[in-house]
Amino acid sequence: MKAVRASRRMTLFDAIIYGLILLISLMCLLPFLYVASVSLTDPEVYKPFSFYLIPQKFSLAGYKYIVSSINFKNALYSTVYITIIGTILNIIFTFTMAYGLTKKNLPHRNWIIGVVILTLVFNAGIVPNFLLIKSLGLLNSYWALIWSAMISSFNLIVVKSFLESLPLELEDSGKIDGCNDLGVFFRIILPLSKPALAAFTLFFAVAHWNTYFNALIYLSDAKKWTLQLLVKTLIVDASSTSIEGTRSDNDFILPLETIRLSAVVVAMLPILVVYPFLQKYFAKGVLLGSVKG
Length: 293
Description:
Layout: H1 2-39, H2 61-68, H3 70-101, H4 109-121, H5 126-135, H6 142-147, H7 153-164, H8 168-176, H9 181-192, H10 194-209, H11 213-218, H12 227-235, H13 256-289
Helix pairs in contact: 1-13, 2-13, 3-7, 3-10, 3-12, 4-7, 7-13, 8-9, 10-13, 12-13
Family: Belongs to the binding-protein-dependent transport system permease family.
Main location: membrane
Domain ABC transmembrane type-1: 76-277
């Protein structure tokens, strides 16, 4: 009887926990559903300050207007360029440096690791970073956003811990077969690091795709703005100076709210599409990288 009562208490406790998780999940999901619903609502039936999760009448007018906007095309090109080039360079620099730091015979290894850890505690700040980018002649260029976020100290330490968890015997066997250090790295280490590569590729891609503050500081040319800056001007700026107007092809004035939320959906959609393909590597890669940390 005691076991049955304990089982009932546990069942009730589990139900309460699951209910709280479901409630929190709905609270996080409802804003996304509302944004998608308003962006898909026909401008003729849209009612400001009204809440609904299912569009009363479907329409893609907001998306058509956003996609046809010249500023959107420029912002999309800028964001895609920064995300692809930046993510590739992030992966190359992070994994090569982390692999080098796993070698105990590396000259000044402890000093380099100490400098990396020091940057986790102390940050130079906005003004020194801006002066550095300016002195390098990178202001108002895409490379200001790419180089300023080249290596994250935290990610570097996690990748280093992951690479140290790989068996050293594999490297020794590769060298016995005639591979040099580069051959071991590209033929043995990287193929074994697919979960970590997938996880950190997602990390870096999301960071570059959502870059906003650095773009706000370093980019003064509106033609080089990223999607996040464009969305900011649509949502925050009441004048909405980043779009050429709110009149559609059929000469119908589109509600500004529909355009704003359509831009939000377009800005976050690519990451939502990519994430499911990397999800199976995501948790595994992060856990493996934190085993020896």
